[in-house]
Design brief:
Elements lengths: L1 E10 L2 E11 L4 E5 L6 H8 L7 E6 L2 E2 L4 H6 L1 E4 L11 H11 L4 H14 L15 H12 L6 E5 L7 H14 L4 E5 L3 H7 L2 E6 L2 E6 L1 H7 L4 E8 L3 H9 L4 E8 L4 E8 L6 H9 L4 E8 L3 H9 L3
Parallel strand pairs: 3-8, 3-9, 6-7, 7-8
Antiparallel strand pairs: 1-2, 1-4, 4-5, 9-10, 11-13, 11-14, 12-13
């Protein structure tokens, strides 16, 4: 659907995008992650035609931004971080105005506005002024604007920024519904949103892609280190540490709690091998009671921090 090849953008001496390449398939929701200044918004503005790249190209359905930008714009709906709405207009009047700009006839306009009011949950506010709406409803109006021409590609820049938890869930559900049929690209700083919404995650740092895959794939790729938590009853602290530290793959054994007769240990494992069975067999050789046994993979927040840290 979309092919990005060696995309590079300089602002003077500052390199905002550094030879970025990726392919985005139809029917996928791609989350674009990165710290401030990583190049996310620059990439989106190039894709939507607001900026020209210094070098490289973007091809959408066979059309290149270097010669067919108008054709690409026809298939893209774009919602910037702050929806550019006319605050003094009624919601219905505003969407009618957008439909006219998009070239929809009267019959198609009414039909499309009704459809979008259902998709975006706007029926209750269609005849209210936009300035009276909460930010969540304003985002919905902006989303309806972006979808007016039924675009094949939807580009959303921080779509849930500034929303309360209930509004975030509502906008997230709308995006997931849209993503079943369209290509959706969204940027966000909310990592839990990526896990709940996106099929694929691309992390950008200093203009370069540093990770690409599903959240599960990102976790697996970083599992050269993980930790195991063990809670034992009737175990001597020193003997337990010595016994479990001797298991191959265990880098360090830490005592987290030893109050009340139960011993809680955290085993830091420096291997990709799953050593849970080895640990269990060692414990079974003793007369200790195994109360808890869990593996902890790195959180998406931890992976993001490691991939985007300055050094």
């Amino acid at each position: 659907m979309i092919e990005i090849n060696d995309l590079t953008k300089y602002y003077g001496d500052l390199c905002a995008l550094d030879h970025v390449s990726l392919t985005i398939e139809k029917g996928r929701i791609l989350g674009l992650l990165g710290p401030n200044g990583a190049g996310k918004t620059t990439a989106m503005r190039i894709l939507t035609g607001y900026l020209s790249p210094t070098s490289g190209t973007v091809i959408a359905k066979g059309f290149s931004i270097n010669g067919n930008m108008l054709e690409i714009k026809k298939m893209i709906g774009y919602l910037p971080e702050s929806a550019p709405l006319y605050q003094d207009m009624l919601v219905f009047d505003y969407l009618s105005y957008v439909a006219e700009i998009r070239g929809l006839g009267r019959g198609a306009m009414i039909s499309r506005i009704k459809e979008l009011s259902d998709i975006c949950g706007l029926r209750e506010v269609m005849h209210r002024s936009i300035h009276e709406l909460s930010k969540g409803y304003k985002q919905r109006v902006g989303l309806a604007h972006a979808m007016m021409s039924d675009p094949e590609i939807l580009v959303l820049d921080e779509p849930t920024s500034g929303l309360d938890p209930n509004q975030i869930v509502e906008i997230r559900d709308i995006i997931k519904k849209i993503g079943r049929e369209k290509t959706v690209i969204l940027s966000t700083h909310i990592l839990s949103e990526v896990e709940a919404t996106c099929d694929r995650v691309v992390i950008i740092n200093r203009g370069r892609i540093v990770a690409d895959g599903s959240t599960e794939e990102l976790r697996k790729s970083s599992e050269s280190e993980y930790s195991l938590r063990v809670k034992l009853r009737g175990a001597d602290e020193k003997k337990a540490r010595d016994l479990l530290s001797a298991v191959g793959g265990v880098r360090e054994t830490l005592v987290e709690d030893s109050a009340g007769g139960d011993l809680s240990l955290r085993l830091l494992c420096g291997t990709r091998e799953d050593i849970r069975e080895k640990i269990y067999r060692r414990i079974r050789e003793t007369d200790w009671v195994l109360l808890e046994y869990t593996q902890e993979s790195k959180s998406l927040e931890k992976i993001f921090s490691e991939l985007t840290k300055e050094n």
